[in-house]
């Protein structure tokens, strides 16, 4: 069967939405409201911000505004990888913040531990499994790179093990992998179940959630701010901006955050015989080594979620629901899946979808304030935000409180990213960089463009 044919019957929506209620569960904001804190964006960052703000000050009036419905964006569409890293990987952290990487690693591990504790405390069934991850090499060159990274991981407190060709194929039964790096930290989660669980916690603590309530403007109002929506407004003391990949209300963020689309497939549930044929008994998350990489994992009903490789930017920072389906990217994913697991040739794909990722030139989030400290933002998690958005939300709350903390002292927090150029240079720069990354994957040689970007602190080291 040709790739185009085998995707014909795939449902164009995330597999995570199958057994849950989707769509808005709250009314839009109508009329005038008053709040101590308005959070703009109902994804992970916004939900964590509401939870942390109300845990610290239970009597605070917190209003959360979501332009669509909770879970419609990246928080309900991602691969569900829980990473302890706050730096988009050890290698990237070594390149960007070597002097404080130990502290960043400690805070990242602590962050994941506290997430697990909170979910358990509130009885959230998000299928959280602390099973770690294996990064897999498809070439001898990538395998040697993984082997050479072991001392760095170990020095930074990570429990890792290099797998040679025989060892990696004994674990994951695929003819394409020649090495791997088994990382014990981190795990997997059902991203939509996590989103719904966080919403329940936030509302239980007292957050007022308004869906279909896009924030259309912010203006100063006396000693505070007013946030406008299509049918109402909120007068507030403070605003936390958590819009991430979506068009920001703060003009400066348009230069720093680039929305790119990631595409995903999900298979039908595997039979017992099919599961036996692929090994993968540790059920850990898997990714390829290389710049253009796949991520894949099993679900609680033994499907395989298979995504990544393409990262598509649309001219003018375009973000729209019609961009969530892309035949060329989905067909390429199907082709790569069949090459990786030829023994699953008859396994159908049942779901196909896409989602938008907020990326920065340094591949990690940026933080800051505006309106004389009355607004704070945490944006740009670059595809690694399932856990790190909690850390980011806490940073933003620190900034609103004008509080010096172990988080706000970090250069990874106080620094910023190199801005993206304006259009049409932006689109051209993205295409040239994508081509350079693909060439490095093919040849193993880091070309002049990537070396130049390295010198300017533009991050492609992970």
Verbal overview:
The protein is α+β, with helices and mostly antiparallel strands and 462 residues long. The protein has a domain at 3-12 and 129-186 and 257-359: D-Amino Acid Oxidase, Chain A, domain 2 (2-Layer Sandwich). Helices cover 33% and strands 22% of the residues. It is globular. The protein is built from 13 helices and 19 strands. Helix 2 (44-56) packs across helix 10. The mean pLDDT is 96. The longest helix is centred in the first third of the chain and has 21 residues, at 101-121. Strands 4, 5, 6, 12, 13, 14, 15, 16 and 17 form a nine-stranded mixed β-sheet that branches.
In short:
It holds the Pfam family DAO. The chain is an alpha+beta fold and 462 residues long.
**Terminal residue distance:** 36 Å
Number of distinct beta strands:
19
Residue share in helix: 25-40%
CATH class of the domain at 3-12 and 129-186 and 257-359: Alpha Beta
Major β-sheet, in short?
A: 9 strands, mixed
Number of helices: 13
What is the 3D form?
Answer: globular
Low-confidence stretches: none
**Could you say what the CATH topology of the domain at 3-12 and 129-186 and 257-359 is called?**
D-Amino Acid Oxidase, Chain A, domain 2
Percentage beta strand? 15-25%
Mean pLDDT: 96
- Assembly type: single chain
Domain FAD dependent oxidoreductase: 36-396
Protein name: FAD dependent oxidoreductase
Pfam families: DAO
Throw out a few tags for this protein:
19 strands; 13 helices; alpha+beta; D-Amino Acid Oxidase, Chain A, domain 2; 22% strand; 462 residues
